What we know:
alpha+beta, 16% strand, three-stranded antiparallel beta sheet, elongated, five-stranded mixed beta sheet
Amino acid sequence: MPRVKASPKKCIKSNLQQPANSWVFMLKGEALELSEQYTGTGTPDIVTLRHPNTGESAIFLFSPANNSVQEVLTLSESKRSWFIDESVKSDGKMHLSTPIDPIFLVLPYLKKFCSTQAQPLDQLLRDTDFPETERLLKSSGLSYLTMIADRKGDEELNAFKYNEEKTLNWLKKKTERVADILKQKNIHVSGSGAISSNFVKSTKAEPADNDAYLRYAHGIVSEYLMDDLSVKLLKFLNIPEEAPVQSLKRKSLAITTPVQESKKLKVEDENKSSSSNVLDLSKPEVKPKTPSMSAKDKARAKAASGSKSISSFFKKC
């Protein structure tokens, strides 16, 4: 048998390789400049801490001197890759850092362990599950810890006791500041979310009042608070309650689209046609009227009177 020549295999040569252990990270230059200011050299460290709202692990970024801390947020979308120099990273996630007040990270520990008695801060921030929590001791933001707690003893002892009244006042100022920023940025807040004024088509939309901005700002601040403290803050802000859900549902039911309206008319017509075939015994029966004859029909009837049928001329034999 003649030998069959095999078809050549397709060879695709590529220099693109998967970069190992690489992240696409957006970091504000201020964080690097701040690190150089205190240490001269070094790079920020990425660690895991307990999130103040959920208590689960979350990623944070510390400067080399641990004097500042930022939260790391991850934006993930499917079917996205990154081209990095001569390589391709199939994981299309993007990480960015944003400054966070370290007092939010200390608040859960302070509220849980120092509500009844004072405790030194170095002992308070010892978390066996998250040992990197001790880095917060060097954070410059903890110099304002007296805004949510009472200092007990001398500065060397550095003991604090949780003060709820101070905490609510501090959180109120934070919320009002966020609301002011939303106003300055001309953000239109609504029940469905925040929208920039650049994306609002109608210019006749009434601007949101101060309560609406405070309510939305409260939601932002509450992302870093425990649920019970978030409820207390809302009550402390004295924001009027929103419209009941039932009334909103009633309004939504009153609004129908053209498609819904056509379906509604179709159903009504079907109901009418089906009900017309049903005998209603509660009402007297109405006899149908005989149709009136036209003048032409009357003339034909008069001419046919007295004439015999054609069948009468045929008889049986």
